[in-house]
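re: ur question from yesterday

yeah so i grabbed the chain u mentioned. its 121 aa long if i counted rite. heres the sequnce exactly as i have it in my notes:
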Amino acid sequence: MHPEWTDKEKADSYSWGKSCTGWILAETPGLSIKQELMPPGTKEKAHFHHKAQQFFYILSGTATFYLGKETRVLKAQQGLLIKPLTEHFVVNETSKPLEFLVISQPSTKNDRNNLEDPFYD
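ran it thru and got these structure tokens back, copy pasting raw so excuse formatting
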């Protein structure tokens, strides 16, 4: 079996949130690797995963992560590991685009639980 290869232009893309875009670089039951782009002023809905841990790696821009009641700000070339059951979401609070990789193990397919808590909206 030959190794799989891809790039952003070849990858399947999808839209999420308000004006955000993602590219699926790899997707298996045990591993998901996506590249995502968030325009200025956009945010993800608060959620958690029962099984998946996720590693976010910032390619460009500045990301603000909300982890429960805690906040972390990451810039290009910085990463953050989020363990299962951790309530979280990412926001681009800047005037520049934010681009990052999100690596999930196992895949988050059917393992996303959105939160309706007014604290997050």
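noticed a couple things. The two ends are 46 Å apart (CA to CA). also The chain is about 0% helix and 50% strand.
anyway ttyl
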